[in-house]
């Protein structure tokens, strides 16, 4: 292998927290006796490790050459998505992304495009979601020119073949038909819908939203959002920066800047929906999801919340929920909690587990106890140190490959995060004090306002769930697909 | 411009892309300790991290009826601590463990009675013994430090920490900052040598919940279990990795200890480390930590062979879910020269949008939402499988016919130059892409070494696949794809079908009659 260092400069960052164990197992003494060498690395920066270039057409490009393997990978982000469109258009973004890849271009018929990419052992994917579009190209370095030419053709000149549109719509219909086959899928969908209603974060895609979409709708959507000044691209791998810029300029020749008007963004209505919601399904295991709305990503308490959630149920086996529900009681295989700190608008706090119907009440009781407890008493120093050390020592894994580095830095700018986000990240984690854990738990966890949802068979529950709140049933109607 | 692209395709075909894989040297250094433990090291100094996989050559195929699911339960128990970790005082725990074992012995007797109609077994007795075990286990927790291994890894920056069990093997993996190699060796050698199977009975319940999650209430998982049970009649691939429900209710801690002692030993283990480490350092640390562990003398030497199948097996599975199907043919074990042509055939059939069955069934006929296939590369002869999700009201029969017609075609018509070259180009690219991830490469090295005894199988098998000819494909299509060698399992939508969970007492099988 040809070796090349991603990390050009060497700046020592003392990541070596003396991760001293305070527990008193004989093993912890052995661990404490180990000594670790300093890690030589630096947090990659735009302008130092990664080049940021604005092409004449307005496209922002991030470059990180690396010659270890003869591969080139590009990822792109586009500011578009369901969030900018009225609700009745909710299926259009997803279909557009799908059809850009499958529907051919002005220059290449759909089947030839598939054949060309597969013969080159290259791949291109395009997708459009709630509030971004994304794309990727992976190509052998020797095919770099052709790879970018095809990617550019797809972005600039998609044809949206009628035949492929019909196929994509029928595939969605089949997916809708199958949406009640798996309890995990049911609870995820119904929970988000209950909390967010018809906001894009919670709306449920129905066949009625899909069936009348025309090729013209998709053409119009593409035209509205796809222009170079609305695209960012991150490229890593075996290339020379001057050559790649020349390739990009050639490939995207004729694609010009365009005025973009992004539609008004619907705001999440911050409202708690307390109660017990049951989806009655004849299965042997109850699927439980408990939660409420949380924070927006700019909230300065996000670091303290991350550590709080780690202690409660985010730190997998070492968390309180796992210790109680899984380890002590053997009630569930998968149990834990998640507090979203990365969403632009209000994200969710959730706790989940799956347990046999006959222990559903017991499991919910244990989970609620833990959610209450973390705001009632200060966490202990061992738990706190554990959470903080894990966040600090795992940080290096955000930057382990050229592709990952360049994508992280592009995403920062795309999401309008501060440019020094990563440089300040460790300080922000270190600034969290032990008493902050209880403080943020009190502010951001509202045990009395939790939505408790269960997919399962209530006839077999160990006790009725009405002591957790008023019970409402969510009917599970067969999806309409005609 | 429209003409350009087909022209371009033709050009690519005339001059196949230069094979860049010759540049990719797999500079793997290896070490075998005196106790038989193997270490494979691929130094990669791109980033100050490494990934490591420790693979034990034990999986569900090494179990027997009565203890199905034991290899996987063993994997769970490997996180419960040792004599050194997870406890403040191991000696003090011993009386609790002995008490639990004696209660479990009584429980086994009661469970056997409860299941035997000739006895008046008592469910109350079973339940009270279970409650007593649970109580003693909770008392023991005063000495237990929960999940200390997990905590130690995470505190030291471990990511991707987990383990997995399948029919042929069990693997323990983690990515760590480059300076944590010795920590890894300390923790892994300790749990290889000093495991304490504390909190066994609550963990067995956890696994039962995992079974409910992945199998009993998941249509794909349940279908796969039913498929394997029909396709294999003798070989250990017939039972599920997670274990049969009734075994998960009765296997004891002492059963597990016996299984563990036999298989968890240095001469049954392979380690692959990929990343920012130095071989000499690995060598020093390997000898220091793993060198003193004695090898196992109880490794099994030979296994049951699946007899030839004589007639198609069709399995109807009622489940509250839309239809899906699995279709499989018995094939070969890893190392058999027919494996490579079977793999190329699978790729031509369903890899990518240009593949034959995707084009035909998903895009043209629109009778399938998805179709995939693949051939397993396993320790013992395994299967070539198709995974089918029908579209809308399309029948299973229509889908089966489409697949079988294409197979018949492959028996007599050579695949095209373009198809074969497409697959070869992708083999080259995948060979390079596997090196992108330290963890992926560590899985590949340890997996191939465990399966074949030599990690170089990665490279040798790559060349075997590149050398596959059109004739090879026709030959294997004829040899394995016969109706008599086929098993088909399919879901028939039936609301409420997966409910009855309680095992029923079994009527004794009496020969000769009274």
What is this structure, in a nutshell?
With 482 residues, chain A is α+β, with helices and mostly antiparallel strands.
Features:
heterodimer, A: 482 residues, alpha+beta, Cytochrome Bc1 Complex, Chain A, domain 1, 2 domains, 6-stranded mixed β-sheet, 12 strands, B: 514 residues, globular, disordered N terminus
The helix content of chain A is: 25-40%
Low-confidence stretches of chain A: 1-21
Number of strands of chain B: 11
Our count of helices of chain A gives 16
CATH class of the largest domain in chain B: Alpha Beta
Q: What can you tell me about this protein's structure?
A:
The complex is a heterodimer of chains A (482) and B (514). In chain A, the strands form two sheets. Chain A has a six-stranded mixed β-sheet with strand order 1-2-6-3-5-4, sandwiched between helices. Residues 1-21 of chain A have low confidence and may be disordered. Chain A folds into two domains: 51-251, Metalloenzyme, LuxS/M16 peptidase-like (Cytochrome Bc1 Complex, Chain A, domain 1, 2-Layer Sandwich); 275-473, 2-Layer Sandwich (Cytochrome Bc1 Complex, Chain A, domain 1), CATH 3.30.830. In chain A, strand 4 (123-128) and strand 5 form a beta hairpin. Chain A is an alpha+beta fold and 482 residues long. Chain A is built from 16 helices and twelve strands. With 514 residues, chain B is of the alpha+beta class. Chain B is built from 18 helices and eleven strands. Chain B has helices at residues 4-14, 70-77, 90-115, 123-140, 148-155, 181-193, 200-216, 219-231, 245-250, 253-263, 279-289, 339-350, 356-364, 396-412, 417-433, 438-452, 457-466, 470-480; strands at 28-32, 38-43, 49-56, 159-165, 170-177, 269-275, 313-319, 325-330, 368-375, 383-390, 486-493. In chain B, strands 1-2-6-3-5-4 form a six-stranded mixed β-sheet, with helices on both faces. In chain B, a hairpin with a 7-residue loop joins strand 9 (368-375) and strand 10 (383-390). Residues 1-16 and 500-514 of chain B have low confidence and may be disordered. The chains are: A alpha+beta (482), B alpha+beta (514). Chains A and B meet through helix 1, helix 3, helix 5, helix 11 and strand 10 of A and helix 1, helix 5, helix 6, helix 7 and helix 15 of B.
